[in-house]
Design brief:
Elements: H1 2-19, E1 30-43, E2 51-65, E3 70-84, H2 91-99, E4 103-114, E5 117-127, E6 130-133, H3 134-140, E7 148-155, E8 160-163, E9 166-171
Antiparallel strand pairs: 1-2, 1-9, 2-3, 3-4, 4-5, 5-6, 5-7, 7-8, 8-9
Length: 175
């Protein structure tokens, strides 16, 4: 009887170990897109804890991971709506102001994927036609993040690539 219990227990442990194993590496190469809706708060200049308006924007992200380990990432952001919470702000004026910040940016660089860690090294950034070294841009405007990052990524059950909470869908260009 002890042998049977021991055999069943061993099979159970083996099953647990196999089911806890990491998923095999996935192929990240190709075009991945994501549409994101954002809601930002505009706070009072007198009291940063008082929200005076909400700004709603949409953002389209696209990564193209090439065979040679390079990538371009494009980000297009548009202001969709402004909602004023106090009477002193005109929603149309705020919308016009924030619409001026609508932008399109392209980041280019090198990538590698080891297990579930994606390494991105941004080499250039462009707004329209002008392309400049990212290290120069980052020195003056560090808000977009450092030149080189390592971030966890995973492919979920719906085959969406999750990069820092943003889910990207793969585009099949062989249609």
């Amino acid at each position: 009887m002890k042998k049977y219990i021991s055999l069943i227990f061993s099979c159970f442990m083996l099953l647990m170990l196999v089911s806890c194993a990491e998923n095999p590496a996935f192929d990240i190469k190709g075009t991945w897109t994501s549409d994101v809706k954002l809601k930002s708060e505009m706070t009072s200049k007198d009291d940063p804890f008082v929200t005076v308006a909400y700004i709603y924007t949409s953002q389209k992200n696209e990564f193209i991971f090439n065979e040679d380990g390079t990538y371009p990432r494009s980000v297009v952001q548009n202001t969709d709506k402004v909602e004023s919470l106090i009477d002193e702000f005109d929603e149309k004026e705020l919308f016009d102001l924030y619409s001026k910040s609508n932008s399109s940016v392209v980041l280019k660089g090198e990538y590698s994927l080891k297990g579930k860690k994606l390494s991105l090294k941004t080499v250039t950034i462009s707004f329209g036609e002008e392309e400049i070294p990212y290290s120069e841009y980052y020195r003056d405007v560090p808000a977009l993040g450092p030149v080189e990052v390592k971030i966890p990524v995973e492919l979920d059950s719906e085959n969406k690539l999750n990069i820092q909470g943003i889910k990207f869908s793969k585009i099949d260009l062989d249609l």
